[in-house]
Amino acid sequence: MTSPLLQTELSGLPVTRGKVRDVYDLGENLLLVSTDRISAFDWVLPTGIPDKGRVLTQLSNFWFKHLNIPNHLLETEVEAMNLPADSDLESLSGRTILVRKTEVVPIECVVRGFISGSAWQEYYNTGKVCGIELPTGLEESARLPSMIFSPATKAAKGEHDENITFAEMCDRVGVDLADRLRHLSIETYQQGAAHAHEKGIIVADTKFEFGVVGGEIILVDEVLTPDSSRFWPADLYEPGHAQPSFDKQFVRDWLSESGWDKDSPPPELPENVVARTREKYIEAYERITGEPFAWK
């Protein structure tokens, strides 16, 4: 197993570092590099997951090609990106994309087909999710009677995303744009979830991000990955409790059981947790794309 790539450096290019991605400003376009950093409980962990950035990038690239919606992707081959001469193209390969710069809509567009996570907690306490009244008696992880659109704010660095009502979203971005984003989000979720289900994966929920360029709404950031979605194995699905998943489950479970207080810097992850987490990310990629994940 290769060492994780936790940070990139491209000489002469201004960079913004998110929890997972390093974003380089090229003027008219952006360079997005998905590192192997992993976050949990609002902390970036000191231990990375080898190849995680490549899995997220390659899976998003698959969806960009297969989903019927315009997106920001311009180039996937690093040799064609005109990067600084001293760039380590080998380490950047597979995890780097050149994209159009857009005016990003400051809303996380979340679509839920099943009730889990924060939505389950909100429903359990109030009977609602983001102001939407739901039927009584739903179990944890149950399929919802119909999909719901539950927007959230895009938090500033170091802050939490906050669920908001659709009315609040309309106040923030305007009724017309909010309606269009809700329609696009649900339509895209339906298309992606149908494909994933054919491959044995339930997409319980997911979040999309959109940008506007030249008056056109386009899909940006990552799409339908284990980091932006809740993926469950269909053959093990059983409502009434939390489900096994294809994401950071092993990481969260180990951290919760480690005695870490979640307020101080997190501990290093043990090798077995890193290996099992890497395996689940790769399994999700291989199931959805139908292709083996292999990287030199």
UniProtKB/TrEMBL annotation:
It comes from the Bacteria. Gene3D superfamilies: ATP-grasp fold, B domain, Phosphorylase Kinase, domain 1. It is an enzyme of class 6 (ligase). Its EC number is 6.3.2.6. InterPro entries: SAICAR_synt/ADE2_N, SAICAR_synth, SAICAR_synthetase_CS. GO terms for cellular component: cytoplasm. It catalyses: 5-amino-1-(5-phospho-D-ribosyl)imidazole-4-carboxylate + L-aspartate + ATP = (2S)-2-[5-amino-1-(5-phospho-beta-D-ribosyl)imidazole-4-carboxamido]succinate + ADP + phosphate + 2 H(+). PROSITE patterns: SAICAR_SYNTHETASE_1 (PS01057). Pathway: Purine metabolism; IMP biosynthesis via de novo pathway; 5-amino-1-(5-phospho-D-ribosyl)imidazole-4-carboxamide from 5-amino-1-(5-phospho-D-ribosyl)imidazole-4-carboxylate: step 1/2. GO terms for molecular function: ATP binding; phosphoribosylaminoimidazolesuccinocarboxamide synthase activity. GO terms for biological process: 'de novo' IMP biosynthetic process. Residues 15-265 form the SAICAR synthetase/ADE2 N-terminal domain. Keywords: ATP-binding, Ligase, Nucleotide-binding, Purine biosynthesis. Belongs to the SAICAR synthetase family. PANTHER family: PHOSPHORIBOSYLAMINOIMIDAZOLE-SUCCINOCARBOXAMIDE SYNTHASE. This is Phosphoribosylaminoimidazole-succinocarboxamide synthase.
